[in-house]
Amino acid sequence: MPNRPPNAERSFIMIKPDGVQRNLIGKIVGRFEDRGYKIVAMKMVHATTEHLEKHYADLKGKPFFPGLIKYMASGPVCAFVIQGLDAVKTGRAMLGATNPLASAVGTIRGDYCLVTGRNICHGSDAVESAEHEIALWFPEGVIEYEDTEHAWIYEN
Ligand code: GDP
Ligand code: MG
């Protein structure tokens, strides 16, 4: 797995079916753009249960697993990849805690939802899982393009 330079770290972010139905795509994507992250891949997907079971393979066996897969398969998701400094850890910080009630106000979950089982968005929890999730959701790869704002976001 290639180690990406710090300014080009990538994370997989997904607006879950409740976030899509509640018309929050623009607001959520906008937060990452506003922060300085580049969107290098994006698509709407109505995922199959098989695909979702792969995405959440580490949670298989948890009591909430069947409900989680049903929730995630209940409608389309908006999957995208952010690129930039500390994308994984800062992406998680921007999402908030898994339980929205424990999420700080100002985070996505802390501002837009109330319960763990309807927490509107996903973000990779480590660089390695990000690479794995990006490959799972974007087997076609991401888009490489010149970042014209780079010098206004980074020192070098
Ligand atoms: P995340 O990385 O913050 O999304 O949290 P996890 O990887 O631990 O869990 C994945 C997703 O499963 C969460 O975002 C929730 O949608 C769901 N989930 C986790 N724990 C629970 C739970 O105790 N109850 C329910 N209903 N869903 C849960
Ligand atoms: Mg997780």
**Structural domains: how many:** 1
Termini distance? 25 Å
Low-confidence stretches: none
The CATH topology is what? Answer: Alpha-Beta Plaits
What is the CATH level 1 assignment? Alpha Beta
The largest β sheet comes out as: 4 strands, antiparallel
The CATH architecture term is 2-Layer Sandwich
Q: What is the CATH homologous superfamily assignment? A: Nucleoside diphosphate kinase-like domain
Query: What would the principal axes of the Cα set say about the shape?
Result: globular
Compounds present? guanosine-5'-diphosphate, magnesium ion
For the CA atoms, what is the radius of gyration? 15 Å
Overall pLDDT: 97
Q: How many runs of DSSP E, i.e. beta strands?
A: 4
Overview of this protein structure:
With 156 residues, the chain is an alpha+beta fold. It has one domain (6-153): Nucleoside diphosphate kinase-like domain (Alpha-Beta Plaits), CATH 3.30.70.141. The protein has helices spanning 17-21, 25-35, 49-55, 65-72, 87-95, 108-112, 127-137, 150-153; strands at residues 10-15, 38-45, 77-83, 121-123. It is globular and about 45 Å long. The mean pLDDT is 97. It binds guanosine-5'-diphosphate and magnesium ion (MG). Guanosine-5'-diphosphate (GDP) binds at residues 59, 64, 67-68, 98, 116-117, 119, 122, 125.
